[in-house]
Design a protein that fits this description.
The chain has 14 helices and nine strands. The chain is α+β, with helices and mostly antiparallel strands. It folds into two domains: 165 residues, Periplasmic binding protein-like II (D-Maltodextrin-Binding Protein, domain 2); 152 residues, 3-Layer(aba) Sandwich (D-Maltodextrin-Binding Protein, domain 2), CATH 3.40.190. Strands 1, 2, 3, 4, 5, 6, 7, 8 and 9 form a nine-stranded mixed sheet that branches. It binds fe (iii) ion.
Length: 341
């Protein structure tokens, strides 16, 4: 019975194009990634070229990867887990699916705030959660931080995506850390009361809603706005150009999240996995990771992707990424209590 089950899993995995071999294979690396960007394949190709290590990858949502790895257990072929948002990485870590890694190169390249103190995951790109607003309807002087969306004057002016979205959960996790639970809950309630409409769509949709006049203010990850501004489509550019941005502060600076990665707990190819993480921290790895997506490089001295140089200087919040993971479930509770769908 057990054997039949095992075969079924193998067939299932093979059907999804997933690596079949749980055993170590010289010169191989199996990546599980929740970043569904085809541009990431250029990173894998460059790593193959530089090291001779053949990369196989599986890209699907973080919850699906998490469930797969739980099911696969010790026979999981995954060597690396990549996820946008530390909230996701935290869930892999909590489930015991990542292992601690010590690497002097990674520790030198990546600031402490942006990696797990025990080395279960490291941040390789930064993503700022910024305010996008309609400059015809709102005055820049009236918007300073995330709290501005909760003000009385914003009634009917706010568009937001759903509260179960990991970006919003991590933002709330930081607000809890900065302001305490009561003030964070009050913020969620006031913002929810200011909605122009119920949450719908992703970050790009929020920008489009502001541009179309459906609402006057929203919160999105910076790269969605930059991609619209640098789009080859003049419609997209026009839409973004009708809006303006602000890097809001909370405590010391703007809420920043990461694209991060860690070595799988049962990685068959551990050395190759660490080599891949170190490649992501190299200048070439950083450029390939952030160039197409318009994320901010993590490593000092790496050139900014096109379109980021015109953004205002900002200070990134220094709240440890670890806290964003720890506060995830409380964050969802506070949103639910506020009736923020
Ligand atoms: Fe995104």
């Amino acid at each position: 019975m057990r054997f039949v089950h095992y075969i079924a899993i193998l067939i299932g995995l093979a059907a999804c194009g997933v690596p079949e071999a749980p055993k170590s294979e010289a010169g191989r690396l199996n990546i599980y990634t929740a970043r569904q960007y085809t541009s990431d394949q250029a990173i894998y190709a460059a790593f193959e070229e530089e090291t001779g290590i053949r990369v196989r990858f599986r890209d699907t949502s973080a919850p699906q990867l998490l469930e797969s790895m739980k099911t696969e257990g010790a026979s999981s072929p995954a060597d690396i887990v990549i996820a946008p948002d530390v909230g996701s990485l935290w869930k892999f870590q909590e489930a015991g699916l990542l292992q601690p890694v010590t690497s002097p190169r990674l520790e030198a390249a990546i600031p402490e705030t942006f990696r797990d103190p025990e080395g279960h995951w490291f941040g390789f790109a930064r993503r700022a959660r910024i305010i996008v607003y309609d400059p015809d309807r709102l005055n820049a002087d009236d918007i300073s931080d995330y709290g501005s969306l909760a003000g009385e004057t914003m009634k009917g002016e706010v568009c937001m995506r759903s509260s179960s979205n990991i970006y919003n959960l991590s933002l709330m996790a930081e607000l809890i850390e900065r302001w305490g639970e009561d003030d964070a809950a009050a913020w969620a309630q006031s913002v929810r009361d200011n909605f122009a409409r119920e949450p719908q769509g992703g970050d790009t949709v929020q920008i489009q809603s502001v541009s179309a006049g459906e609402c006057a203010i929203t919160i999105v990850n910076h790269y969605y706005w930059v991609r619209m501004m640098t789009s080859s489509s003049s419609d997209q550019r026009d839409m973004a150009e009708r809006t303006a941005i602000i890097f809001p502060t909370v405590g010391a600076g703007t809420h920043v999240n990461i694209t991060g990665a860690g070595v799988a707990a049962n990685a068959p190819n551990r050395d190759a996995a660490i080599a891949f993480l170190e490649f992501l921290a190299s200048e070439r790895g950083q450029e390939l990771l952030t160039g197409p997506t318009k994320e901010f490089p993590m490593v000092d001295g790496v050139p900014l992707p096109d379109g980021l140089e015109s953004l205002p200087e900002f200070i990134a919040s220094d709240v440890p990424m670890l806290k964003l993971g720890e506060n995830q479930s409380l964050a969802q509770q506070l949103y639910d209590k506020a009736g923020w769908k």
